[in-house]
Specification:
By secondary structure, the protein is α/β, with parallel strands linked by helices. 39% of the residues lie in helices and 24% in strands. It has a single domain, classed as Rossmann fold.
Length: 196
């Protein structure tokens, strides 16, 4: 297997979390397997989460951390996002990162429209998303149609050309004990070793 350039983003806003442990486990396993890895932790990033405008004619200059984030995405061949699901969606700071950084002219091209949709600009990359939740997978699918996973996969990553995007879902996670977490970590380590 050839070496990949992998960008890992821990999308949990707290300094310690299961998402952080998963992101670090993935990164360590991928490095040990010979892959080139960069990792960022959302809690370390300093930026204004509020896009602040009603359209794309004006937008705030990117803070240095957002510029580094964009650079890491551009550099990567494979993007790994580890995030919790809160209230059926992404943590506010993670959503703010996407709002601020995934801009036209960088992530998608509004000047080129195909079937009513702007052309994606981040093609040639794949993704793995590791989601923790307290909603059991069966209920998440039955009651909520896996809405967050469809958002991340289709309306964010696929929209900008990052595909295929594969999902790993762990639940219930808030009060998971060592016996439950151990096989999850084994799964994440295996994903990192295989760079998938």
């Amino acid at each position: 297997m050839s070496s990949k350039r992998i960008f890992v983003l821990n999308g949990h806003p707290a300094a310690t979390s299961l998402s952080k442990a998963f992101s670090e486990t993935y990164a360590q396993a991928a490095r040990a397997a010979g892959h080139d890895v960069r990792i960022m932790h959302l809690h370390d990033l300093n930026f204004d989460m509020d896009y602040g405008f009603s359209g794309y004619s004006n937008y705030k200059p990117l803070e240095p951390d957002l510029e580094v984030f964009q650079s890491n995405v551009e550099w990567s061949q494979h993007v790994v996002l580890s995030t919790p699901m809160w209230w059926g969606g992404l943590p506010a700071k993670l959503k703010g990162l996407i709002d601020r950084a995934f801009l036209p002219g960088w992530a998608f091209d509004t000047r080129t429209i195909k079937m009513g949709m702007p052309a994606p600009m981040l093609t040639g990359r794949t993704a793995r998303v590791i989601v923790t939740s307290d909603t059991p997978g069966f209920f998440f699918g039955l009651l909520y149609s896996k809405a967050l996973l469809r958002q991340i996969k289709g309306q964010i990553f696929h929209f900008v050309g990052i595909k295929p995007t594969k999902i790993t879902y762990f639940a219930p996670a808030s009060h998971a004990g060592p016996a439950q977490i151990k096989p999850w970590m084994k799964t994440v380590k295996s994903l990192g070793q295989r760079a998938i």
